[in-house]
Amino acid sequence: MVTGASSGIGLAAAVDLARRGDQVVLVGRDPARLQAAGDRVRDASGETPELFRADFAVLDDVRRLAEKLRAAYDRIDVLVNNAGAIVLQPVTTVDGFELSIQANHLAPFLLSNLLRDRVGRMVVTASGAHRSGALDPNDLNLPLRRYRAFTAYGTSKQANILFTAEAARRWPEIHSHCFHPGVVRTRFGNESRLVAAGMRLLPFRSPEKGAETLLWLVNSDPARLRNGGYYYNRRLRRPLRKAADPQLAARLWTASAKAVGIDA
Ligand SMILES: NC(=O)c1ccc[n+]([C@@H]2O[C@H](COP(=O)([O-])OP(=O)(O)OC[C@H]3O[C@@H](n4cnc5c(N)ncnc54)[C@H](OP(=O)(O)O)[C@@H]3O)[C@@H](O)[C@H]2O)c1
């Protein structure tokens, strides 16, 4: 099951998994892009994938998605929490959270919790941009005060790495890993003319290259991987200290559970 499967890294991963013969479930937001992604997966593999739509800016959408997935599948071998975006302007969601922390962290945190008993392994698309993170679990809306898109984004990616490590501690029966895909030419940031131009002109990675470590994590023997680890180019890396602090990870978990209304 791949979130953010309608574009970029998630779509490249879904196509590859389907080609290998895996049953792939695509989760996306934009209906037209999701349908087009489903068609691409079908053309590449001969199998028509199931499509599920949810906007992670709305936590009720995530709850409905989890209900539908639970009704449809007894077992989810791999949950790929890949959906994510950089948010150029400060936005408060209907749930009252800064949009980057909600769409990139709180929504997948909630989805993973709601599916937890069905999931065998989890792969999270994090980022080297965690270096710009300034996470404060006491105030998940801190970036709204003096908004800088890259700080808000980096904070959500810092949260992805901390979440993965804490999930490995709390849910040892699930193999949880996260990774940095490199700088990849996708629709990421394309609302910014500057980023869009950079994506077109600079020699960034293809989505297929960006998905390589994701696919390697999905297909590797978990005994050879570090549960809760952060990977880049198929190698275990040490994230910056602010994304490797177990106490911060535990505090983030408690704050996130409270934010989305579940037991910690
Ligand atoms: N590109 C890079 O250089 C880079 C580097 C490091 C990490 N990453 C991470 O890689 C992941 C995938 O990004 P990408 O580069 O492949 O970008 P992309 O082409 O823009 O794809 C992002 C995917 O996430 C979905 N998404 C975005 N906001 C959403 C929301 N509110 N609710 C539900 N789904 C949402 C998008 O759905 P729609 O089709 O509806 O927009 C799309 O399927 C992200 O987590 C990103 O942070 C990217």
- What structural class should be given to the helix and strand makeup? alpha/beta
Strand composition percent: 5-15%
> In which range does the helix fraction lie?
40-55%
Work out the helix count: 9
When the domains are counted, the total is: 1
Tell me what the CATH architecture is: 3-Layer(aba) Sandwich
- Anisotropy-based shape: globular
By DSSP, the count of extended strands is 8
Q: Could you spell the SSE succession in H and E letters?
A: EHEHEHEHEHEHHHEEH
How many angstroms does the end-to-end distance come to?
A: 24 Å
Described by its quaternary structure, the protein is single chain
Low-confidence stretches are: none
Indicate the mean pLDDT: 97
Largest sheet, in brief, is: 5 strands, mixed
CATH class: Alpha Beta
The strand order across the widest sheet is 4-5-6-7-8
Rg from C-alpha positions?
A: 17 Å
CATH fold name, please? Rossmann fold
Structure description:
- With 264 residues, the protein is of the alpha/beta class.
- It has one domain (2-260): NAD(P)-binding Rossmann-like Domain (Rossmann fold, 3-Layer(aba) Sandwich).
- Helix content is 44%, strand content 13%.
- The strands form two sheets. It has a five-stranded mixed sheet, sandwiched between helices. Strands 1-2-3 form a three-stranded parallel sheet, sandwiched between helices.
- α1 (8-19) runs parallel beside α2 (31-45) and α3 packs parallel to α4.
- It binds NADP nicotinamide-adenine-dinucleotide phosphate.
